[in-house]
Every structure is written in structure tokens, then in C-alpha cells.
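Figure 2 data, in text form.
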Amino acid sequence: MEKATGRRLVHQAWKEGRVPEAALSSTEGEFQAVSGQVERESLLRTYRRRLRRTPPGSLLHDQTRTLVGFLEAFQETRLTMISVTPEVGKFDIFLADSQARQILFWMQMFSQRQETRRK
């Protein structure tokens, strides 16, 4: 995915309230944006299983439950998974529609701080 497209999609999703402001930092400065198609049913199987294996009330359980709810409500068979990795900072994964025209969901459980500059 081109950087300009990744940046535009993240900013658009933030303006529309689908991602937090902190996600904008992923597209500042140098970053990589990679995207690929994923099957909705495959994600549902994976995250329903994870939901059963995480302790109720834990942050991971709550984030996974939110993701499963989104996937259950989503009607298309495919999504685009977009990962954004800045040189320094945060790593984020988003789900977009199958044509990658719009980010629909921020996969919060995968966001993490990177302590040092990548080499």
C-alpha cells in the first residue's frame, strides 16, 4: 500500500471516530503500510477461539469481544487488513473494506509501543 493512501485512510478514520487520535502518530514521519485481503470467516474462527481462551473481564478479552462483535455484524466476506509500522513509535493494525477505501476497525489488541528505532 502506498504511504499516502495509508495516511489518508488513517486520518479519514480518525475524523469519522473509528480510530483514536493516538493512531495518527503511526503515519507521521517515516512508516511502512502493508495491506492484504483476509476472509471474515477465518478471522471469526480465530477470534472466537481466542475469546473462549482469555479470562473474562481482562483487557484482551474485552478487546477480542469487540472485534468479534464487529466481525459478526460485518456482511462482506472479505476485508483488507492494513498494518502500519512507523520507524519509531506505535504499530497498528486496521481492518478496511475489501477495496481498502475505508478503515472500519482498529485492532487495538495489536497496537504496541516500539522502544527503539527499527534497523
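Caption note: The helical segments are 3-15, 40-53, 59-73.
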